[in-house]
Amino acid sequence: MALALPASVEVLAPATSANLGPGFDSLGLALQLYNRFSVVEGGVDPLLPEIEVLGPLGSGLERGADNLFFRAFATLFERQGEPLPAVRIRMQIHIPPGCGLGSSATAVIGGLVAANEWLRKREKAVSRDDLLDLAVEMEAGNHPDNVAPALLGGLVATTMMNGKVHAIKTPFPEALKAIIFTPTFPMDTVAGRGLLPASYTRTDVTFNTGRVALLLSALQMGKYEVIGEAMQDRLHQPYRQTLFPAMDSIIQAAKNAGAYGACLSGGGSSLIALASTRFSEILRAMQLTAREHGVEGTGRVLRADQNGARVLQTPRTRIRKEDSARYGDQFCWSPARPGAGKENMQSHATLVPEIAALLSAIQLRCVECSALYPPVEAQSSSATGLVPRYRCECGGVLDVELEFTLPKQVGMQGDEESWHLMERASNASAVGALWRQVFDERASSPPIWSISTDKLLLDYSGVWRYRELILPAPERYVITRPEGNTNLYPVGMENCPVGRIGHRQIGTYAGLELFFLKHEGENPSGSFKDRGMTAGVTMANMLGASAVACASTGNTSASLAAYAAQAGMRSIVFLPAGNVAAGKLAQTMAYGATTVQIEGDFDAAMQLVEQVCNELGIYLLNSLNPFRVEGQKAIGFELLQQLDWQAPDWLILPAGNLGNISAIGKAFRQAYDLSLITQIPRIAAIQAAGANPFYQSYQQQFQKRVSVKAYTVASAIKIGNPVSYARARAVIEACDGIVAQVTDEEILAAKEIIDRSGIGCEPASAATLAGAHKLVAEGVIKRDERVVGILTGNLLKDNVTGIPQQRNSAVVKPNLDAVRAMLVQ
Ligand SMILES: Nc1ncnc2c1ncn2[C@@H]1O[C@H](COP(=O)(O)OP(=O)(O)OP(=O)(O)O)[C@@H](O)[C@H]1O
Ligand SMILES: N[C@@H](CCO)C(=O)O
């Protein structure tokens, strides 16, 4: 029996950037940053809505009948002659109000679209054109350039004709992103318009008309090099500059750092730059220049929203009562809480306070639409009262957001004052130095078992050493081997010690002078998966899960089984039958997992496990689980620390389900933001040619998501429809990365080099060296650049593929002559 949903409507409305320089009151672009509004029938007085605003950005918004969203909602009911219901409104505000990103347009459009959806059930809905006219009326009747893109999405050219709005939407080029700098101060649109002159000279008007024409054509024809000139304006920016004197310098800094063009966004105070690469450098340049002028602010890198405002559906699988009753005792988690009485099972609030506090500090943001969720939600229909979130309601994958808090170090006791001063220092490099010191001190204290404490064990783990940046879990809940601390082998022609002839062969084969291989196969269960699994199983432990599950090509299942066994949980793994290397299967079964072999490929197993976990209340630990990705970030932090925080030029790694790229890319980005490093490495993702959906998308500038029927000898990356596509795409775009493909023959040739060097790896890992070899030969990676390659799994995982089965092995009689005869052959 599924529960009935309450009468409600939920709308997502995108941010917009109006004007785009010369298109004053007539051009606007929708952006992938959203305010989310839900309206539920309830309350007493239709004219006095109950308004709840979530998120600190909305703290100053009106809460009563004069709230703009409510006014728009009520206006449409009035226009249609329908009685207004009493409602409760909830707003999740992600767009800073009054900062030139169309927050007021989201309120107007959101209110109208929500009302229209409500009226649809009464057959009183109006057309989109009518909604637009009404929206412009509500925005003082004179500028449609925010509300039109908020409703329609994309790039919109719009004007008023005889009191009616005319709007034409064109798709915005996928290759371009908007880099937005938002100062801490708002600029009121009405006040800003008051500064504009009543008339303009012909020179100024033709200056602008020519540039609008140029801008639209340049965007349409991909002639981005003229955007800088085309985004100039003489109709509003020069007048608004008096409210924001640093504006021109910041715009110039963005262009100097690689943006095609930049301008004031809407009525300000945000500035928008357009670029196809170097996003973080551009943002950093804008922030630094602003700071030089005494202006602080926040930065965002956003894609264009191509859809406009939309009514949200609720497709999430609901747990059927009979199923949770049937399986609840066997699988479901019972939240970690003081006292284990069943009476406490129905509420999130029954978690022990330290876990409840941790969870409330974490938000999950949708990679596709930016919607925010708590990591677990209370749901009375579930047997336990708790439901973890793995996906957004739009279907997108979720990313953990957590504010980082610098811990106080033992070595700094007694100097509390200077600690606080440093902590608040505006000098970013000083803060970076503090973080480095925290991690370096932890790395230098290996545990001594006789006096070991949990904390020392955590410091020694190559994941939990960075816990403030991953998951600041209370120590007693952490499930750790400990993992990480994997070797970083110097194998380049220059940086490999002369005597290590075998290792040097690797650098010679790649054609690289400064080359390192980080062997993640040296983790406890033999693959990089342990990094994510320690974080994922720790989260399962905090939630009191009794069963965990995943779909796997082998490494994930072995790792899950090992960590679940340590935590005393049941593990269930879904494997593509006949497609898992023997070593991995043996490990998984030895650790005690229930193995479900699917007659299908990994992608089929993945689909199934998600359904099963949702239905049966089992905690899902595929990389769809955002905490797994957080743990895997530690690969990035650890390799940076091993290089004394000198970021390499390139990171090369095999690409299958794309969780690793997502995680390491995120780690690099965060390390850069914390000033742990001063440059973000470029990432080269290497796919097997027979399992290359990401490569195919990349070849089409990511205009289309591709999936394939996968085939490759590298079974760990034999994936045709990668779960972390959206996350990985964002990483590749943000770091100016590339995606390449290598054939199975190239993979096996590279594997032989790595194996014969004495290091050894599983077939998928060798894609890294095969990729390096190819990219250096093609001149993409320069011979003298500093490169780190990731080996993902241990040689013993697959003891058949690419391993000589007969050569070098013979049975001889047990005497010297027989051995001599054999060796001189
Ligand atoms: N979610 C909301 N609910 C209700 N009112 C809102 C909401 N968001 C914005 N507003 C109203 O809109 C005002 C800001 O409008 P303003 O036009 O100055 O800025 P903007 O829309 O953010 O920027 P721009 O129009 O330049 O892109 C807020 O002060 C508030 O009154
Ligand atoms: N075109 C408008 C956009 C702000 O809403 C202006 O510049 O005032």
From TrEMBL:
- Tell me the PROSITE patterns matching this sequence: DEHYDRATASE_SER_THR, GHMP_KINASES_ATP
Binding, ATP: P96, P97, G98, C99, G100, L101, G102, S103, S104, A105, T106
Domain GHMP kinase C-terminal intervals: 216-286
Q: What keywords appear on the UniProt entry?
A: Amino-acid biosynthesis, ATP-binding, Cytoplasm, Kinase, Nucleotide-binding, Pyridoxal phosphate, Threonine biosynthesis, Transferase
What pathway does the UniProt record associate with this protein?
Answer: Amino-acid biosynthesis; L-threonine biosynthesis; L-threonine from L-aspartate: step 4/5; Amino-acid biosynthesis; L-threonine biosynthesis; L-threonine from L-aspartate: step 5/5
SUPFAM superfamilies hit by this protein? GHMP Kinase, C-terminal domain, Ribosomal protein S5 domain 2-like, Tryptophan synthase beta subunit-like PLP-dependent enzymes
Under catalytic activity, the entry for this protein gives: O-phospho-L-homoserine + H2O = L-threonine + phosphate; L-homoserine + ATP = O-phospho-L-homoserine + ADP + H(+)
Cofactor(s) recorded in Swiss-Prot or TrEMBL: pyridoxal 5'-phosphate
Q: Which CDD domains match?
A: Thr-synth_1
Under Enzyme Commission nomenclature, its number is 2.7.1.39
One Pfam entry name: GHMP_kinases_N
Q: Where is the GHMP kinase N-terminal domain?
A: 67-154
Entry-linked InterPro entries: GHMP_kinase_C_dom (IPR013750), GHMP_kinase_C_sf (IPR036554), GHMP_kinase_N_dom (IPR006204), GHMP_knse_ATP-bd_CS (IPR006203), Homoserine_kinase (IPR000870), Ribosomal_Su5_D2-typ_SF (IPR020568), Ribsml_uS5_D2-typ_fold_subgr (IPR014721), Ser/Thr_deHydtase_PyrdxlP-BS (IPR000634)
List where in the cell it is found.
Cytoplasm
Which residues belong to any copy of the Tryptophan synthase beta chain-like PALP domain?
510-793
Quote the function comment for this protein. Answer: Catalyzes the gamma-elimination of phosphate from L-phosphohomoserine and the beta-addition of water to produce L-threonine. Catalyzes the ATP-dependent phosphorylation of L-homoserine to L-homoserine phosphate.
The protein's matches in PANTHER family, at most eight in alphabetical order, are given as: HOMOSERINE KINASE, HOMOSERINE/4-DIPHOSPHOCYTIDYL-2-C-METHYL-D-ERYTHRITOL KINASE
- Per its UniProt record, what HAMAP family does this chain match? Homoser_kinase (MF_00384)
Q: Which family does it belong to?
A: Belongs to the GHMP kinase family. Homoserine kinase subfamily.
Q: What is this protein called?
A: Homoserine kinase
